[in-house]
């Protein structure tokens, strides 16, 4: 699975305003709503579900990366977006580091395989230090798209 | 071949591997319907990190560091995937037992996962 298969371009945030966990999740979910990827009435429920998942253990998987996610019956296919925080956000990461890169995923409850393949793709690309560094330095959504596209083609 | 104890593979490749060091392995199958996703991967790393032994997880020809969640997630191990847990070092055997047990117990998820709370 490639980034292009699940990252909603219109919902990419190159410079997050939020500076805490809930704020980041809210801002990213709102961007997906504004991009028409999730229904307006579902926004709050999705934010709550993602926060609930975080309570089971942070999705801050290390290297300044987090993959907040949930299953939600309101989506028919896997939807996701990417956000960058230049300051970094305390996300209770597994390695204690601040998080700069966020990959938020919402998947239909009956498609665990898609979720897993998206995680696989994200983590595979993130092993590349250069990709991580460039993404953290992205200053516009256009930069982010270019980096994701580049990663997709070099896959 | 016939002299090699079952489940034990001599580390004969890779220049960094000490020839005297034995690598123990255990085959496991992912039974969780959600596959080896973030939470089980996190748990695997937490348990693996309790041991001094070097721990690796192998899927087909792909070999990843068992103490790195990002590496584990790159396997994209769905339900039914067969994996080999390999460990080498002083407490390799104990590490294998503890890690294989996680698979046997479905990473302690099951009910919590589907109850929606």
Q: Can you tag this structure with a few keywords?
A:
heterodimer, A: 155 residues, alpha/beta, five-stranded mixed β-sheet, 41% helix, B: 117 residues, alpha+beta, five-stranded antiparallel β-sheet, 28% helix, disordered N terminus
Description of the structure:
- The complex is a heterodimer of chains A (155) and B (117).
- Chain A has 155 residues and is an alpha/beta fold.
- In chain A, 41% of the residues lie in helices and 18% in strands.
- Chain A contains five helices and five strands, in the order ααβββββααα.
- Chain A has helices at 21-34, 43-55, 112-126, 129-137, 141-153, and strands spanning 60-62, 65-66, 69-71, 79-89, 99-107.
- In chain A, helix 1 runs antiparallel to helix 2 (43-55).
- The longest helix of chain A has 15 residues, at 112-126.
- The termini of chain A are close together.
- With 117 residues, chain B is an alpha+beta fold.
- In chain B, 28% of the residues lie in helices and 24% in strands.
- Chain B has four helices and five strands; from the N terminus they run E-E-H-E-E-H-E-H-H.
- In chain B, strands 1-2-5-3-4 form a five-stranded antiparallel β-sheet.
- In chain B, helix 1 runs antiparallel to helix 3.
- Chain B is globular and about 35 Å long.
- The N and C termini of chain B lie far apart (51 Å).
- The model of chain B is unreliable at 1-20 and 111-117 (pLDDT under 50).
- Classes of the chains: A alpha/beta (155), B alpha+beta (117).
- At the A-B interface, helix 3 of A face helix 1 and helix 2 of B.
How would the blueprint of this fold be written?
The complex is a heterodimer of chains A (155) and B (117).
Chain A: H1 21-34, H2 43-55, E1 60-62, E2 65-66, E3 69-71, E4 79-89, E5 99-107, H3 112-126, H4 129-137, H5 141-153
Parallel strand pairs in A: 2-5, 3-5
Antiparallel strand pairs in A: 1-2, 4-5
Helix pairs in contact in A: 1-2
Chain B: E1 8-10, E2 22-29, H1 38-48, E3 54-59, E4 62-65, H2 69-73, E5 82-88, H3 92-104, H4 111-114
Antiparallel strand pairs in B: 1-2, 2-5, 3-4, 3-5
Helix pairs in contact in B: 1-3
